[in-house]
Specification:
Elements: E1 6-7, E2 24-25, E3 35-41, E4 52-57, E5 75-78, E6 84-88, E7 93-100, E8 105-112, E9 118-123, E10 128-134, E11 145-148, E12 154-156, E13 162-168, E14 171-181, E15 186-197, E16 206-208, H1 211-214, E17 217-221, E18 231-234, E19 238-248, E20 251-262, E21 271-281, E22 288-295, E23 300-308, E24 319-327, E25 333-337, H2 354-357, E26 361-368, E27 373-382
Parallel strand pairs: 2-5, 3-9, 10-16
Antiparallel strand pairs: 1-15, 3-6, 4-5, 4-7, 7-8, 10-13, 11-12, 11-14, 14-15, 17-27, 18-21, 19-20, 20-27, 21-26, 22-25, 22-27, 23-24, 23-26
């Protein structure tokens, strides 16, 4: 998903910051020069007493190695019984002021441009869980840090690029995925996005990548409307049954469920479910396909990009493919199909490699291991807004 990387400018964060006392609380007067008067309250206006209040530079990026914990300018305060606190001795600059305790969080931004008194109100509420995905494949073998700019929340993505913040304060934030580049002593950003935490947007997650790719993403199938888009197929000595089933085991809704049975000891028996694309699809720009799956004990799944060709028509007379294989867990697990990580061309099952099929894919297939059960859910495609089977394809001459 990521076609670029650039250095995140944080050079000024450690400059002109001075040491300060921590744990200050507001007194009866809020009229102190070179200070910020803050009121922390609940949504209904009730004062939020004894809340921790933390001040950070607006451009702070948690986990960026070039900052270092000792060079970060931070001020810690606590509200009084009326939810008030006076942030004194704050150098001029732009800041994020966060208030929080074990169950409530909130923040507000302030630009402190003069030494005249400023005031700020911070509303606190129940925090929200926020999850998403960092662009692949460039980060497939890197552990990117995902941080909220101006706040001290950071998590690591997993091997599929997935990340999750358990509790972020409500409000508009910028979330950044980056890696520390020790060779250049810099931070390289692989994706960023602005989002309104706590808003009822209906989004299932965020995608941190090239802005062009943010718009080119779609769900191929979530199986909530059944499995009619998929057709089962099997070799002569095998059989496969396909149905829509409750996802279960911690996942909501429906999932595809197929059972692969072998009727003989033939070595090359196979069973699959396939999604016809209605024609040739040029997938040269495909970034990745992500899906959830689980299987019975010691089961395996193969994901294939098939090309069925007979002259100029799409039939099943000839079959070539490019594929990759996964060992399944009995628990739901997120898997990522990345073109660069597909099997190299060999004679196994007609595998000719990605370069040979990528410009003319006609079908997506999911193979199950003989004698096992497989459940599949939420197949997502990154790099396309939708597959176009009617895009012109330049046929190669033999």
């Amino acid at each position: 998903m990521i076609k670029w990387a650039w250095t995140y400018g944080l050079a000024t964060l450690a400059l002109c910051f001075v040491a300060c006392d921590s744990g200050r609380t507001a007194g009866s007067s809020m009229e102190t020069e070179n200070s910020i008067a803050v009121l922390v309250q609940l949504a209904d206006g009730t004062p939020a007493a004894r809340m921790d209040v933390i001040v950070r530079p607006e451009s702070y990026l948690a986990g960026a190695s070039e900052l270092g914990s000792d060079s970060l300018y931070r001020l810690h305060f606590t509200t009084d019984d009326q939810g008030r606190v006076l942030l004194s001795d704050v150098p001029l600059g732009s800041y994020v002021v966060e208030a929080r305790n074990d169950s409530l969080k909130g923040f507000a931004k302030i630009s402190y441009a003069t030494e005249e008194q400023d005031s700020l109100t911070v509303d606190v509420s129940k925090p929200s869980k926020v999850s998403g995905r960092v662009g692949l494949p460039q980060l497939a073998r890197s552990s990117a840090t995902v941080s909220v700019v101006g706040l001290d929340y950071q998590v690591q993505m997993d091997s599929t690029g997935y990340f999750e913040f358990e509790a972020l304060p409500s409000g508009n934030v910028e979330i950044v995925a980056f890696v520390n580049d020790a060779s250049e002593d810099s931070v390289k950003v692989y994706g960023k996005i602005e989002t309104d935490v706590g808003a009822q947007s209906g989004e299932d997650g965020l995608y941190l990548g090239d802005s062009a790719y943010v718009k080119t993403y779609f769900v191929l199938d979530d199986f909530e409307n059944g499995v009619d888009k998929w057709a089962p197929a099997a070799s002569m000595n095998a059989e496969v049954s396909l149905s829509s089933d409750s996802a279960g085991l911690g996942r909501e809704g429906l999932a595809a469920h197929f059972v692969c049975k072998r009727d003989s000891a033939a070595e090359w028996d196979w069973a699959l479910i396939g999604h016809e694309l209605g024609g040739f699809v040029d997938m040269s720009d495909l970034d990745s396909i992500v899906f959830w799956a689980r299987g019975s004990e010691q089961s395996r799944l193969s994901f294939a990009f098939d090309v069925f060709v007979n002259g100029d028509s799409v039939t099943s007379s000839e079959n070539t493919k490019s594929w990759v294989h996964f060992s399944l867990d009995t628990a739901w697990t997120r898997y990522t199909v990345i073109p660069a990580e597909l099997d190299t061309a060999d004679s196994n099952g007609g595998n000719v490699g990605w370069d040979a099929v990528k410009s003319r894919v006609t079908k997506l297939s999911i193979f199950g291991q003989m004698g096992t059960e497989v459940w599949v859910d939420d197949i997502e495609v990154f790099g396309y807004g939708i597959f176009d089977p009617y895009a012109p394809i330049t046929k190669k001459k033999d």
